[in-house]
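Internal tracking record. Fields below are filled automatically when a chain is submitted to the structure queue. Please do not edit lines marked as system-generated. If the sequence contains nonstandard residues, flag them in the REMARKS field before resubmitting.
Queue: standard
Priority: normal
Entity type: single polypeptide chain
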Amino acid sequence: MRYALLIAERPGAYDGLTAAEREAITAEYLALRADPRVVGGERLAPADTATTVRAPDGDVLVTDGPFAETKEVFGGFYLLEAGDLDEALDLAERIPAVRMGGAVEVRPVDRP
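SYSTEM-GENERATED OUTPUT FOLLOWS
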């Protein structure tokens, strides 16, 4: 079964880290990406580069940046081929964002 591991980072989580600490965290993400069960994934550009599209009352409204201030920001995802939810959760727990105050939402991919 495929699972999407949606990574929500805490804004400012990397503030105050040394270059070596940042490199170590990046290496962790790359090691997870190299796991043969991971069939896809990407890191997203910062939230302030986003464009939000809404249609209140049927009128399309396009705004720059994220729609609202949040405690967590969607930072990227992995697409994982796993035998079951427990296997997906095992990998999710190893994602650095979890220990840095963020979260990982694990969701089955609904394929027809």
